[in-house]
Amino acid sequence: MAKIYINETNQLSHINPELYGQFSEHLGRCIYEGLYVGEDSDIPNVNGMRTDVVNALKEIHVPVLRWPGGCFADEYHWKDGVGPKDRRKKMINTHWGGVVEDNSFGTHEYFELCRQLGCKTYINGNVGSGTVQEMSEWVEYMTFNGVSPMADLRTANGHREPWKVDIFGVGNESWGCGGNMRPTYYGDLYRRYQTYVRNYDQNAPIQKVACGPNVNDYEWTEKVLDTCFNPSPCHLHGFMDYLSLHYYTTPGPWEHKGSATEFSEEEWYCTLHKALYMEELVEKHGAIMDRYDPEKKIGLAVDEWGTWFDVEPGTNPGFLYQQNTMRDALVAAVTLNIFNQHSDRVKLACIAQMVNVLQSMILTDKEKMLRTPTYHVFHMYRSHQDADLVESRMEAVESEGGAMYEVPTLQQSVSLDQDGVLTLTVANLSLKKAYPVEVTFEKLTPASVDAYILTEEKDALNTFEEPDRVAEQSFDGVTVMEQGLKFTIPACAVVSLRIR
Ligand code: AHR
Fold first, then answer.
1. Which of 36, 169, 174, 249 could cross-link 124 (Cys pair, CB 3.0–4.6 Å)?
2. Total Cβ atoms within 10 A of residue 230
3. 445 strand-pairing partners
4. What percent of the chain has pLDDT over 90?
């Protein structure tokens, strides 16, 4: 019997809704076809955005959407994507598949998509191949409310009111596709570029993201913070609000990451073992941040994470289209539990990517769409958003996966929302064993529980022919006791309990 002890009276940190953020890049069929089909499409749309996809995404309460990249951001020139569509410049998307980018989805379309989703905006600026002037003018175009060349251009292009930019990234992967820079050089560039990300609306300051490390590049974190974190009365957070971290889970080496759908038990444990590495990354980068910022004013923004497998056979290798199984669901479940558990430092996270690319929420095929197993985890976890993490401890947990890929079989996180409702999410990583679980509270006598479960074979997935094979179900196996609960979680499962 596994035991979960919950001290609901001890609230530890706030779980920013933005931990459940999404990422959409001009890559493969994420934007075009996946989200945006254009006003003239036969696929039902509102102002060009697919109605079916937007409606499905609204159900998971997308808190924030990062755009336009990724690597694409550092070769994106925003003026190509505004004005009459028939006059917008075409370019080759050299990073992703070598296809023609016609710029029909640009700044105005992005804000329209966020309006429809009801989410915050996170724009990633171009440091790698763009100028300070270009970045500064983009911010002016989007946010300045008055007479200025860029505000006038925005009005001429049909939008008189400024938009709200909640978050702005100054470069992406500047250690790699965003310019192959060294950390102190990037740090200096960051200081300069961010100066011109002006806050035109003092009541709605833009939060700035500095490009952080790739995986375990601790030197990058150290040197960028050393260069840029310089708190003073006029720069309360140094020069940044967030430092990013990118980490993808790949079972195999980069050249052969492994199939998304056909994998052995060993690859199952290997994948989850690697997903759990996120905890070490967050803790070690967090420890460096603690030295500069002990009050935790700046957040770690894990703004690219998720599984990265070989593309589906027969698809463009540059489109990064992969299927999504129960393995992806478990990766999402354990990663989101880690983010909740470290919500004192992790303040923003964006899974890569929202539709048709890498570990997606949604896959589309022309007019059809499906929700992936990962989507269902985001749905089951949505009540953690904006709640407070509470103390919890798992006891008597076994391990599986052998010496090489050892993983705990059970993993959890717990939060308490403003209405006094506790959300407990538990993942069972075991492929072999169901576990009876006994939950004990510090004081609470539960009155009622709403319980949901996602469970299937390890490689189960949804197809356009059978879109709901893997789907969240009501779970009626919970027994309420005096100061506790009991249930049995099947092997290869995610459970979410809402406890009143
Ligand atoms: O998400 C796909 C790519 O992965 C992004 O464009 C880049 O930032 C990262 O390397």
1. 169
2. 13
3. none
4. 95
Backbone phi and psi for residue 92, each to the nearest 5 degrees, phi listed first: -95, 130
- C-alpha dihedral sign at 294, 296, 299, 302: positive
Residue identifier of the C-alpha nearest atom 5 of ligand 1: 70
Residue 110 DSSP symbol: H
Protein residue with least CA distance to atom 9, ligand 1? 70
What is the widest separation between alpha-carbon atoms in the chain?
Answer: 68
Given the residues 173, 400, 456, 472, select the one marked as catalytic. Answer: 173
Regarding the beta carbon of 124 and ligand 1, being less than 6 Å apart is answered no
pLDDT tens-place string over residues 286-323: 999 999 999 999 999 999 999 999 999 999 999 999 99
Strand duo 120-125 + 167-170: pairing: parallel
Q: What is the pLDDT of residues 121-138, one digit of tens each?
A: 999 999 999 999 999 999
Q: Which class for 422: exposed (0-12), middle (13-18), buried (19 or more C-beta within 10 A)?
A: buried
φ/ψ of residue 306, rounded to 5 = 135, 180
Look up tokens 């911010």; give the residue: 139
Whole-prediction pTM value?
Answer: 0.97
Quick count: other Cβ atoms within 10 Å of Cβ 317?
11
- 141-159 as b/e: b if 16+ CB within 10 A: bbbbeeeeebbebbeeeeb
Q: Which helix (H) or strand (E) holds 390?
A: strand 388-395
- Tell me how far CA of residue 485 lies from CA of 274, 434, 449, 481, 482, in angstroms: 31, 17, 9, 5, 8
Angle between helices 107-117 and 51-59 (to 10 degrees): 50
| Tokens, residue 359 | 């570990």
Q: Which atom of ligand 1 is nearest to the CA of 353?
A: 1
Find how far residue 426's CA is from the centre of its chain: 20
Q: How far is CA 135 from the centre of its chain?
A: 24
Output the CA 422–ligand 1 centroid distance in Å: 35
Contact yes or no for 51/380 (Cβ under 8 A): no
Cis peptide before 341 (omega within 30 of 0): no
> Is 25's C-beta closer than 6 angstroms to any atom of ligand 1?
yes
User: End-to-end alpha-carbon separation of the chain, Å?
Assistant: 24
